[in-house]
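hey so i finally got around to running the thing on that chain from the lab meeting. sorry it took forever, my laptop kept dying and i had to restart like 3 times. anyway pasting the input first so we r on the same page abt which one it is
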Amino acid sequence: MSILSKPYFHNEEAAYEFVESKVWPNGPVCPRCGCGDRITKMQGKSTRIGTYKCRECRKPFTVKIGTIFESSHVKMHLWMQAIFLIASSKKGISSNQLHRTLGVTLKTAWFMSHRIREAMKGDDFNNFGSGGGLVEADETYMGSHKGHGSGTHSSKKRKVLSLVDRETKQAKSITMSKVTIDALKPVIAANVAREAQLMTDGAPMYKVIAKDYAGHHVVNHTQGEYVKKGNPEIHTNTVENYFSVFKRGMRGTYQHCAHNHLNRYLAEFDFRYNNRSALNVNDSERADAILSGVVGKRLTYERTTQ
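ok and heres what got predicted. didnt touch it at all, straight out
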């Protein structure tokens, strides 16, 4: 049976029950006072679907409170469809496509997309290379620098640093205002263990930064060197493959991204990379993982101000 035949994709009550099972695996919890004991489900004919009453603080609530769904008038089963579509699309799905597929306005589809990307963010810093593992580090640039300076580094291109842990096969990407030693050093220090072995290209800044780590392996792309044979092989092909998928998605699917939203798009591509099929994570499990991250991720910004 197709996963898209599941009741929670079509029935509002089933959608609420499904979300509740993911957000409240041990039963409903009041998002206002944290009480999980004196909770009653409201059953009146005029009561909204999924409404509970907390007998401790005497406030009604639903599973939407304190999540990306809060204050949204979009039906929950449409949220489930949107989450599955974003989770299962390797290079993303545009707001225009969601707008046509779900039958919501373009503005609503855009806002839903960004709320879902917020749920895809990882809150913890990953200790990449822990135990002496291998960490590939590289930077990439997005956009045209025509008329904005003489070189890539002095241009107004958007700058991204990505790290990939070879052992755990996890990636983390960070937007950068500058790609310099002073800018990169604290970011790498916050995410990479000191006992790690760094693998980079021949950019001089990495030679300085790598002095704080157990080892540093370099491939010189300017001389046509991409892989050094050995155990382990020395290359940055893994992080470059990540960039390949990311850029194809940004150019082919999204086409445009304002700088102040780039961090969410990076979170989306990091999430799918870290929960990809090669790691035995299927589309349904990926969508479930997004649901596990919806709590505390509500967005309240105005589109034009952030």
